[in-house]
Write a structure and sequence with these properties.
This protein is an alpha/beta fold. It is built from 13 helices and 17 strands. The protein folds into three domains: about 1-65, no CATH class; about 80-170, Nitrogenase molybdenum iron protein domain (Rossmann fold, 3-Layer(aba) Sandwich), CATH 3.40.50; about 210-330, 3-Layer(aba) Sandwich (Rossmann fold), CATH 3.40.50. The protein has a five-stranded mixed sheet. A five-stranded parallel sheet has the order 8-7-6-9-10, sandwiched between helices. Strands 14-11-16-17 form a four-stranded parallel sheet. The chain is globular, with a radius of gyration of 21 Å. InterPro entries: ABC_Transporter_SBP, ABC_transptr_periplasmic_BD, Vit_B12_bind_prot. This is Iron complex transport system substrate-binding protein. It comes from Nannocystis exedens.
């Protein structure tokens, strides 16, 4: 539920969003069509690409499929000044050999090493968008890979800042976004080299998979428990590693589950890959000792593995390293 605060003040009408339906006051949409853009961004951050906006009576306002290109805006000149607003986007620009154009990034970007010299704009879910506008970038690479980032995309739009919005749901999407970024930056040939390397790595992983897929649980966060759902690129990584996500049937990109649901899913192996947590601070024993998971066979057998979130949680050229790490663990079962 969201309060829609009018720019000129006055009573704030309410909007209610879910993946299946978005309820908006018709009058508010007529007065501010950007509300539909905000609804699309909210949906994209949760893995959906289908808008079903209705008014208070349930009558349709807009029903359509949309693309991420609908959410961004093109650069108006050659792209020489770039801002990245997600660690995966910084790595993408670097893979294209263009990081020298990056003038600022959000706080959690740590690769390539040159990020240390960039101006920092604040946390990934709350960068200083006024400062972004002041820097007058030719293009911002924004993201909708995490719920909450829709506020950034809509905030950039409100400030008239050109942006390429990235939110891949599969390796195929990542490859398409590499090509889009290559076109934006004027380096399409380099983009094709990155794509070719990723495709070759994926093919090698696919060929090495065991004949029987292992049931895999990957944990984004321990309390409450979050895991990838149907609309997450991580499913592809698990498949390339020789596994299948036990919650791949759940709608959305990231879904909350209960200990009882995990026990019922009965994975063969579990990976802890908590968002924003360094590899050395990941604690497999947290899952093994967690109340409610006493009957989880994988935990009892010690089949809980650390997985660096810099690979599993950053959709880009380095993501296949997560598949390699999982493949080694699955091969040892």
């Amino acid at each position: 539920m969201f309060e829609l605060r009018p720019r000129g003040g006055g009573p704030a009408p309410v909007a209610v969003f879910s993946l299946g339906r978005q309820v908006l006051p018709r009058t508010a949409v007529e007065e501010d069509p950007d509300l539909l853009h905000a609804a699309r961004a909210w949906l994209a951050a949760r893995g959906s690409r289908e808008l079903r906006a209705v008014d208070e009576t349930g009558s349709s306002i807009c029903a359509e499929r949309f693309t991420l290109s609908d959410l961004g805006s093109s650069a108006t000149q050659a792209v020489r000044k770039v801002i990245t607003l997600a660690p995966s986007n910084a790595e993408l620009v670097a893979s294209l050999g263009c990081f020298e154009r990056v003038i600022a990034c959000e706080d959690s970007s740590d690769s390539p090493p040159e990020t240390a010299k960039c101006e920092r704009l604040g946390p990934d879910l709350g960068p200083d968008l006024d400062r972004v506008a002041e820097l007058r970038p030719d293009l911002v690479f924004s993201s909708l890979s995490v719920p909450g980032m829709e506020r950034i995309v809509t905030g950039l739009r409100a400030r008239g800042v050109p942006q390429r919005v990235l939110a891949p749901r599969s390796i195929t999407d990542v490859i398409a976004e590499v090509r889009l970024a290559g076109a934006d930056l004027g380096v399409p040939d380099r983009a094709e080299e990155v794509v070719a390397a990723m495709e070759a790595e994926a093919a090698a992983l696919r060929q090495a998979r065991p004949p029987r897929a292992a049931k895999v649980y990957l944990e984004w966060w321990p309390r409450p428990m979050f895991t990838p759902g149907a609309a997450c690129f991580t499913n592809n990584l698990i498949e390339l590693a020789g596994g299948i996500n036990v919650f791949a049937d759940r709608p959305g990109a990231s879904v909350e589950i209960t200990p009882a649901e995990l026990v019922a899913a009965d994975p063969d192996i579990c990976f802890v890959s908590w968002c924003g947590v360094a590899l050395e601070k990941l604690d497999p024993d947290n899952l093994i000792r967690r109340p409610g998971l006493e009957a989880l066979r994988a935990a009892r057998a010690g089949r809980v593995i650390r997985l660096d979130e810099r690979y599993s949680g950053r959709p880009g050229p380095h993501m296949l390293e997560a598949a390699r790490i999982m493949a080694r663990a699955i091969a040892s079962l």
